[in-house]
Amino acid sequence: MADEAGVGRRGERPVEEGPAERGPGAAFHMFVLMEDLLDKLKLLSYEEEALRRHNMRPLSRHYFALPTNPGEQFFMFCTLAAWLITKAGRPFEQPQECDDPNAVISNVLSELRSFGRPVDFPPSKLKAGCGEQVCYVLDCLAEEALKHTGFSWKRPAYPTEELEEEEITEDDAELTLNKLEEDVAEEESDNEENYIDLNVLKAQTYRSDMNETAKQEEILQSTTDAAEWNLEVERVLPQLKVTVRTDNKDWRIHVDQMHQHKDGIDSSLKETRAKEKYQEGSGGVTERSRVLSEITEVLEKVKQETEEKGSSMTDGAPLVKIKQALTKLKQETTQMDIQIGVMEHTLLQSKLKEKSNMTRDMHATMIPEATVGAY
């Protein structure tokens, strides 16, 4: 039976680490995890035991790593999880499409915890049917199933190839770069020292042309045996091998390094400029979003005021209030008219009373004077 370290050799992953600790390759970790999961499922014969029973197609290399069809992927996840739990020696009911997703996820995570596997992510991550959490759950269950079936990873056995031993001398097999340069330099110095005669050169050229023409006519029909030709090629082939020994002080090495560094700088510069443009664009988007929120707030306020004015214009309450005020004004006007009439009547009575008193006083003063004069 395989131990836990042997089964998890290909599926180790730091699930509890954050993105900053995992490095820049964390976004591609799920693809590697999915490929390892597919290999383990093939070792468990999932196509014959799990998929053919439900008339499902085999998984692709990145089936659970990329979102394609959430409903189909979630049902495939539930089916494989239930089959792996059963394969690991635990009874688990096969889920149906009409079952509650939350209940199925809760049961799967409970079984995963019972195997001693940590679950430090919310269950809602599994509802999408894809992602690193889905690959992690299935990979852990596949490892438990492999341990239960007694599977163990073994070292690969490579076929041995017998190489033909050839006795090749180092002087004949290898030509160093320095020796080639020295030979070329010697040939150039010899050519410079020799005197060139044009007539001799013309004669040599004519003879060489004639020889070439004769040779071409001779090789129109070859008389060489193919087997002998191949043997000769095999005999001289090791001697034609040229091995150039690299020297760190050679200028060609420095030129290659310069080109490599230049390509690396160009690629890094492009990535840095892209990030800078993205930051500038995201900053502009944030500012425009803030302005948009302010404009939206003002627009909502204007809409509210417009609705209030429209409702007040269509409402009959102000007209009723005006009519009530006019009625009240008429009543007050009538009361004021009555009070004015009473006041006028009272004033008239007081004036008449005063006039009568004055008339009586005048008669009273005139009678005694007449009486005095008569006597």
- Indicate the proportion of strand residues: under 5%
One letter per element, helices H and strands E, the order comes to HHHHHHHHHHHHH
Briefly note the structural class of the backbone: mainly alpha
Rg computed from alpha carbons, rounded to a whole number of angstroms: 56 Å
Query: Judging from the principal axes of the Cα atoms, what is the shape?
Result: elongated
**Roughly what is the average pLDDT, rounded to an integer?**
76
Main beta sheet strand tally, sense and closure: none
What is the distance, rounded to the nearest whole angstrom, between the alpha carbons of the first and last residues?
A: 170 Å
Quaternary state reads single chain
* Residues in helix, %: 55-70%
Total E-strand runs? 0
Individual helix count: 13
Give start-end ranges of low-pLDDT stretches. Answer: 1-20, 166-175, 192-196
Itemize the secondary structure elements and their pairings.
Blueprint: H1 4-7, H2 19-22, H3 29-43, H4 46-51, H5 70-87, H6 101-114, H7 132-149, H8 170-173, H9 177-193, H10 198-218, H11 226-236, H12 251-314, H13 317-374
Helix pairs in contact: 3-7, 5-6, 5-7
Brief summary of the model shown:
With 375 residues, the chain is mainly alpha-helical. 68% of the residues lie in helices and 0% in strands.
Characterise the protein shown here:
The chain has 375 residues and is mostly helical. Helices cover 68% and strands 0% of the residues. The protein has helices at 4-7, 19-22, 29-43, 46-51, 70-87, 101-114, 132-149, 170-173, 177-193, 198-218, 226-236, 251-314, 317-374. The longest helix has 64 residues, at 251-314. The N and C termini lie far apart (170 Å).
